[in-house]
Write a structure and sequence with these properties.
Largest sheet: 4 strands, parallel
Order of helices and strands: HHHHEHEHHHEHEHHHHEHEHHHEHHEH
CATH class of one domain: Alpha Beta
Distance between the termini: 44 Å
CATH architecture of one domain: 3-Layer(aba) Sandwich
CATH topology of one domain: Rossmann fold
Radius of gyration: 20 Å
Number of strands: 8
Structural class: alpha/beta
Bound molecules: iron/sulfur cluster
Strand content: 5-15%
Mean pLDDT: 96
Length: 417
């Protein structure tokens, strides 16, 4: 790990607050990850990324920015990263998963907003996240009301743009979405390099390969007995938004190669799928509680999870229009709870619970995430019709409710064992 203080100073980081953030995460990471025995050797790469999370990767972004390339921060899996890559840019996820910056955000945003939004805005306002500091621009979307208003606030502090995501999936909605994807493509051409069919195909291939590697890892996690802890699986998914895509794909495949040969962990039981709101790094609380209680998380139906890697772009088209449409179609399949109706998500949750061999589902919504809370009833009913019990929890990033959650999770596990 290098000494990054000079780089952080150059990025305008509040060094003291930033150090407090790093100091608070170190012991947690040690306890949840490094201190566990029997982890695959290939997890060493991902540990090294986390160990230097504000260093090595940020220095790559600084280099890209200094070279005149766009460094684009995205807040949602609707922003097509293929188009950032085609324009020669770098894409990085900047959803907030930490509690520390939230009070700063509450100075400018209502308290009754989900922690993901407040954490992200707080990171920018407190100058404690080098990723935010290096961005040339940010892109958000109109998926939930909290985000829409947060973007207006954030745009006072950084160059910020918004993609309009329709809330239904009709033909007309798709036309609007295709228009938005083309507008984004045009913008990326203006801030990056002009691109055509060949750059688009290359970028589609890179991102498809990343998603395929994650699909492969997901299938390995469904094995019985399990070969990877849920915490490690979640960590890999969280890092998919930070790392260089080609390097990341290689490392995920390396991990899968090792897991193919693994004989399996002592059979922890039961197997749990977590569904619902995203869990950005370092929001490990839910997995830590479930696995601390003796179960194992085998799958995440989440944007930090299957909603991110499940669908691929059809890269066979031979014109720019065909490829842009294929990109728009792929992103339009995302089953975010912002859509109404959203039968597809209910079907996918059931399908993924069955595929992963889950004995139960923990439905996790972040506090004040109305759209995921709003879908609880339908999802729970559909799962229970297939004999899969569901525990519904709503939580944030603070440790305050951990004991209460632990009691509820333990009771649920006892019930389904
Ligand atoms: S839950 Fe919806 S709004 Fe949130 S990151 Fe996922 S797709 Fe975007
Ligand atoms: S977690 Fe829910 S409330 Fe928060 S940004 Fe995502 S969709 Fe919106």
């Amino acid at each position: 790990m290098g000494d990054w203080n000079a780089m952080w100073s150059g990025l305008g980081i509040d060094l003291e607050a930033h150090q407090q953030l790093l100091d608070s995460l170190g012991p947690v990471y040690q306890e949840l990850f490094l201190g566990r025995e029997g982890r695959p050797e290939a997890m060493g790469y991902f540990d090294s990324v986390v160990g230097d999370i504000h260093g090595g990767r940020v220095s790559e972004l600084v280099k890209a920015k200094d070279g005149g390339w766009p460094v684009v921060g995205i807040f949602c899996i609707f922003v097509p990263e293929e188009l950032v890559l085609a324009a020669g840019g770098v894409c990085v996820g900047v959803c907030g998963g930490a509690q520390m910056p939230i009070p700063k955000a509450e100075e400018v945003l209502p308290r009754a907003l989900c922690p993901l939004i407040k954490s992200a805005v707080g990171f920018k306002l407190s100058a404690t996240c080098p990723y935010f500091q290096v961005l040339t621009e940010g892109w958000g979307e109109t998926t939930c009301d909290g985000k829409k208003k947060a973007w207006e606030t954030l745009s006072e502090f950084m160059p910020f743009h918004v993609l309009e995501v329709p809330q239904r999936k009709t033909k007309e909605d798709f036309s609007l979405w295709l228009h938005e994807v083309k507008r984004f493509a045009q913008h990326m051409r203006e801030v990056g390099q002009p691109f055509g069919v060949s750059e688009l195909k290359d970028a589609i291939k890179v991102v498809n390969e990343k998603r395929m590697a994650m699909q492969r890892l997901a299938r390995l996690r469904w094995k019985n007995p399990v070969v990877l802890s849920g915490l490690d699986g979640l960590l890999v998914e969280q890092l998919s938004f930070f790392d260089d895509p080609e390097r990341f794909t290689k490392q995920v495949n390396r991990l899968s190669d090792e897991l193919e040969e693994a004989s399996g962990l002592n059979p922890p039981s039961p197997r749990i799928m977590v569904a619902g709101s995203p869990m950005p790094i370092p929001h490990w609380k839910v997995h830590a509680i479930i696995e601390g209680a003796g179960a194992v998380v085998v799958h995440e139906e989440s944007c930090i999870g299957s909603r991110y890697y499940r669908d691929l772009v059809d890269g066979e088209g031979e014109s720019e229009d065909a490829l842009l449409e294929a990109i728009a179609r792929r992103y339009f399949k995302i089953t975010c709870a912002c859509f109404t109706p959203n039968h597809e998500r209910v079907e996918r949750v059931v399908e993924e619970a069955l595929q992963s061999g889950a004995n139960g589902v923990v439905y996790h919504s972040l506090s004040f995430c109305q759209i995921y809370e709003g879908e609880v009833r339908k999802v729970k009913r559909a799962l229970e019709e297939r004999g899969i019990p569901t525990l519904v929890i709503s939580t944030d990033y603070s440790p305050e409710d951990a004991e209460q959650l632990r009691t509820r999770v333990e009771a649920f596990l006892e019930e389904i064992s």
